[in-house]
Amino acid sequence: MHNTISLTTGTKPPQGLSPFDETTALSSPHERPGPCLDELFIEVGYYQEKKHGQGAAGDVFLSKKTSDGHLISVLSDGLGSGIKAGVLATLTATMAIQFVAEDIPIQRAARIIMKTLPVCKERNISYATFTIVDIDGMNRVRIIEYDNPPYVLIRQSVECEPIKKMLLIHRRGVPRESLPEPFANARMYYSAFEALPGDRLIFFSDGIPQSGMGSAPFPLGWGNPAVHSYIQKEIAEKPDISARELAQHLVFRALLHDGYRPFDDITCGVIYFRKPRKLLVLSGPPIDSNRDRELADLFARFPGKKIVCGGTTATIIGRELGRPVRVCLKDIDPEVPPASAMEGADLVTEGIITLGKVAELLEQGPRFDRFRANAALRLVEFLLDSDHIDFVVGTKINEAHQDPSMPVELEIRRNIVKRIASLLEERYLKKTTIRFI
Amino acid sequence: MKELPMYQHKTVKVVVCSGTACYVMGGSELLLLDDHIPSRWKGHVELEGSPCLGFCKNKTQGKAPFAIVDGEVLSEATIPGILKKIEEKLGET
Predict the structure, then answer these.
(1) Secondary structure (3-state) at A417
(2) Fewer CB atoms < 10 Å away: N or C end of chain A?
(3) Most confident listed range (A62-66, A120-124, B27-31)
(4) What CA–CA distance (Å, rounded) separates A248 from A250?
(5) Domain annotation for chain B: domains and CATH numbers
(6) What backbone torsions phi and psi does residue A158 show, to the nearest 5 degrees?
(7) In 3-state terms, what secondary structure has residue A41?
């Protein structure tokens, strides 16, 4: 593990940041070991607000983990707003994700996209911009940017400026000589560096630097320099701020500048190379009651945050460890049973109804009612604020739930936990394990 | 001076189950019992939730939702049913 990180501010590239060529970078994959690979988790978080009055977002943020250990994130901003912009941005982002996932080098993928994208006849600019981030299993990062605000790399709370290589691409359907250079050729910027523990990569759509445009405090918008210093301030105030939280804070700030009626779609993505935060979720009584003690020991010994989902499960653990479980009757929600409190547990909830609601919330995406405080919302917060999540699922069937007079929504625990875990893996790029007991 | 009612010296403890089976069968309503307690009983009824009382696993106990009023188990509990039982326990009837 690299314990010493040399710091450079200003325009000089810090160690490990070099505009190395894609081919040379790929030819020597085993020369330098990545910084403490087992202990590093790449957290990807994003937040988005639609332009005021629009039904669909014109920005698209997609992320994917491939089977060969690559993590790919794309932010695309479609020209204009609403559904048309959304379709073009989705097209761009999906192409980028698929190409890079299929091992097409990032620069070539960008070229193909540029040649495919339609060009606006009136403005002679492309219909969508993009930032493609490709991180391999050795934590080497390659980024290609086209027309989005430049990304920000924060290393040990200092902003670093990697050297970027400009790539000129001739635009499809635009006669070479008929237009001044910036219109005939698209400029993309390629950069590459090796990520170190604690690095944060922040990229956003122009809705953020342009927020507040025309207002008295920001006649020309918030502006990139101010955005960068805001990011640094946020990190200085809370050095372990999660990717999800930082993305949210930036978007909320931009929203504030726009008076909560955004003039454009606002999207921010953050990638944080962090030590994994661990979470244990216990749900369901063991098939054999002789294993109750084992379950309680698992709970007591786990190094990290702990959540118990299920009344019977909580009763078992409480009994085995001699800790009372008290239901909090303060926040009664019409849809979700109340949470309880037990010493050593970060959260105790009811089982199947709450887990069903959690799956529903995770499917809805990063926007949900954050002003309510029911047990399912709190559980979702814990899941999203963790990186490695271990589910331990008891497989004993509660006969009372099999009564035909019970609502059919009472699903089988195993299925619902599997659904939650796969949502967390695929949609939120978490690492999960499920054990049955 | 008017004689104090007998229940002024007594507190009745009500435990409501908030486990899955009880919750879907109407237990969610029972957790709001506090809103239905007449003012003259205030201070004499103690409401508590339980993550699961475990009665749903035993068919002989009756059907969900369950509540315990002063140590006595009520099955298919309703707000009026619990109030009636509290009244009984307080010695009003």
Answers:
(1) helix
(2) N
(3) A62-66
(4) 5
(5) 6-89 (3.40.30.10)
(6) -120, 140
(7) strand
